[in-house]
Design a protein that fits this description.
mainly alpha; 82% helix; 154 residues
Length: 154
């Protein structure tokens, strides 16, 4: 039991970390998200103190990592462990779908409607989907597939 808990914790940390590395790199690689991010950074740069800009940038990266990588993976991993799911499609697919829904969920929480989605938000949802698929795959490889040790002699 303790070994399983350690494997699950290790897999979660490695998978969420890989997603948090992938997400900013992928966002900077896409021209639409890079333009949206740079316009937000320029607006923050000219309207705030230099220390506030660094703090705001760190907060945005942290929020993207939590919303796109850690929270969906935690929900799916907990549900999968409780239900005893071992399927790759559960861990990668459900994590990717929850991560892709994060921009819509955040907009709905602020009181915005579904008709107000911008093309940049669709690109961020795609990046979150890819990050969720990556984190779910890494978690599945370490915790689920790597954890299926059957006894040699029954």
């Amino acid at each position: 039991m303790l070994r399983r808990l350690l494997v699950i914790s290790f897999a979660f940390v490695i998978a969420a970390g890989a997603g948090m590395i992938f997400l900013p790199i992928a966002a900077l690689s896409d021209p639409t998200t890079r333009e949206a991010g740079s316009s937000l950074a320029i607006a923050a740069l000219f309207s705030a103190e230099p220390d506030d800009v660094a703090a705001a940038f760190g907060y945005v990266l942290w929020a993207m990592g939590i919303a796109g990588c850690a929270a969906p993976l935690a929900i799916v991993a907990l549900a999968g462990e409780v239900a005893g799911a071992r399927a790759y499609t559960w861990y990668a697919g459900a994590t990717a779908l929850l991560a892709a829904a994060a921009p819509t969920i955040l907009r709905a929480a602020r009181g915005g409607g579904l008709a107000e989605a911008s093309p940049a938000e669709g690109r961020f949802a795609l990046l979150f989907f890819l990050a969720g698929a990556l984190t779910g795959t890494i978690y599945w490889l370490i915790a689920v597939r790597g954890g299926e040790r059957t006894p040699r002699f029954s």
